[in-house]
């Protein structure tokens, strides 16, 4: 069973920008999937569609065979962990509280407002912090941590949701190369060892080649490559980044474009 399915999805923003143009896509379990493409390609829009933060203008998005709609949005969204480029932590709160917010979707509205967490929530949050190796920082203010540590807290918060998939939007774009590798190693480990599939937007080809099980190349709102990293030839990368006009047909073989 696919984790997420996009069925003929189109996304047109209210200002008329068509960010996603008729995309069919199935995210498979066990994979570290990288969505690769230049700025403005539609990568963030795709991720936001996958967790219901954006509603498709046409087509449907399903998470574990359930089509996203108004009624199931809250329930589905908690199964989908999000990791952000800017970490999106509350800096003045301590690390533990930030991770606990990953539990909010499981609590009542009132419990959420009052930050009433249960014993079980603490245990899950503690385990998530241990998983990212930050147990000793639990009671430190989030804004006292380095960028890499803050991103690991962001990942712990996603893990605390007990998600069935993690979506990471440019998770290392604000980090230096060494820290970027630590964060990508961690996400890859979560994918392989904890069996939580990861979909990450990246714009760096090298990281995609090194970490991805599958690369989905996106340009101008369309899928222009879909294959394993070793199918991603240099010619294909040039096409992905230099193509000016929108592609007419999605191409699924690196060789097709290499010879085009
Ligand atoms: N909220 C929005 N309203 C209007 N246009 C948007 C919005 N968000 C993104 N866009 C436009 O949609 C296109 C795709 O953007 P985005 O998904 O952010 O691409 P990427 O993440 O690959 O850089 C761009 O042209 C961008 O300017
Ligand atoms: Mg983006």
Mind explaining what this structure looks like?
The chain has 260 residues and is of the alpha/beta class. It has a single domain (31-50, 69-258), classed as P-loop containing nucleotide triphosphate hydrolases (Rossmann fold, 3-Layer(aba) Sandwich), CATH 3.40.50.300. It has helices spanning 43-50, 73-77, 95-100, 109-113, 119-131, 147-160, 177-193, 205-211, 234-242, 254-258, and strands spanning 4-12, 18-27, 32-36, 58-63, 66-67, 80-84, 165-169, 198-202, 214-219, 222-227. The strands form two sheets. The chain has a six-stranded mixed β-sheet with strand order 6-7-8-3-9-10, sandwiched between helices. Strands 2-1-4-5 form a four-stranded antiparallel β-sheet, covered by helices on one side. The relative contact order is 0.17. The model is unreliable at 245-251 and 253-260 (pLDDT under 50). Magnesium ion is lined by residues 43-44, 170, 201.
